[in-house]
């Protein structure tokens, strides 16, 4: 029996199925889209799980709702608090609204306006921080002490990971024959949940992470065999700038089969295909899975030669489009 | 027995069901999306039938495929020809490719580039015309004589109308409780098919057309009780500039319950909501149904007070987005 068999990960198929029962009435079962034109480009059959159509415009509502509904009444009486560049922030605001409790949201100054607007729309109370992870965490900690609110971390949390894992239950029910799933990676909450869910249902399935070259801490971590953080990040994919946590790292280390990194030019090219061919309005982080499947790093990897039915998780669709609207006026 | 009972319209539930069986293997069953935020804005429960996700990016493939597959071998041996501002053009090219015959496409010079690109992508042979209906028809007629190709009219054709009507079969299967459907109107092929299909399945259902103020020939026709054409049109909705034909007019006259007109500002506002809230990448014509349901003309109409579950057909998603991509470079 080797070491891996003894590891207990942060979530499992039981906690993921529990999460799905808990959040089912409050989330969308998002559709899976396909495109003959994109299949031809990729040389694979692609299945796009469109979490951009999820409530709040991203998958984050799954984990946030699971976390907020899991808490006892006395735990949440004073509200919830988090720090997030945007999509988890909006999701937690929405989940808190559902439960009738306040949500305190620490947002870095460089968050996209549309994501901040979503937080306001769902009634979250915004507290600004600097852009570094250190500042975000310090401000959240201060708010937590002052308000007595419960911290709901954006990814390093069992309830969050279990909630995000519900995507696998739906996707493998919608398209059981998928043999590989490509998942954006940032802090690792999404990919941990998806991996733990999918490999429990279908052990032969492969999971590939897609990461921006300008924030490739996960690829570096996997290569080094330990969590690597970066002094700074530089990518258009504003949702993919966080680093792995101690709950997500073991899943990435042991169960994620590979990490493909792509540059911002490839991400924009994939966004263009998503808007113009697939007709989905997505954010850069949401396009990275398509960018990965079209990259040479993926195409030239013999390990994926026999994987022909590829699930791609389009994680979210919150993008400032003012330049487009101004062009019509 | 009044006069209406004696009228036979261009399609019926039999021809529509036949069309669905014929085209089923070649089209997408498009998903229906919902949004709590848009429901709140409209004060109704909205169900968006997303034909922007259809093959070719618009509903047009339904009618075009039905027409091309309905023809006998000797009829289509020399190919098909049409004139279209874009979406029917691409759809006919795709349908012809399916059958291995040439498609000759007459396109007015002012068609959006992305629609012309779609025609090229699907292997259609492009012949340019001036922008008027007269020029489009004259050039198509000439091509028809020279090549021996069969004309497949974009809307004034029983097979086209039956094909577009398949949307109703799907929509009322997906959401049977819908009590009103809002449909963009141009030449009337889409709304005729949808109306004949929906009212056969559910006679109590109401059908409302949405039309741009700058091309309001259908509203004027309905008011005058005869087909009215306009000397010129002026609207951002490039897919909604055609006039009714003799096969579509009787349906609009007798069975379409009302026509709501909206201006270009309202169309752009609805587009913005579609991109930013619903996360679908659509063209102006595709947004007009949402614009109509949000208009005062609709809200203040007592006839729709009890219609609370509204189907909206998002007709297509082919829009030039270069201004957006340039902003990333």
UniProtKB/TrEMBL annotation, chains A, B:
What are its GO biological-process terms? D-serine biosynthetic process; L-serine metabolic process
Cite the EC number: 4.3.1.18, 5.1.1.18
Molecular function in Gene Ontology: ATP binding; D-serine ammonia-lyase activity; L-serine ammonia-lyase activity; magnesium ion binding; pyridoxal phosphate binding; serine racemase activity; threonine racemase activity
Q: Which Pfam families match?
A: PALP
The cofactor(s) it depends on are: Mg(2+); Ca(2+); pyridoxal 5'-phosphate; Mn(2+)
Residue span, Tryptophan synthase beta chain-like PALP domain: 25-316
* Annotated keywords: Lyase, Magnesium, Pyridoxal phosphate
Q: Which family does it belong to?
A: Belongs to the serine/threonine dehydratase family.
Record-given protein name:
Serine racemase
Q: What gene name is listed for this protein?
A: LOC120270550
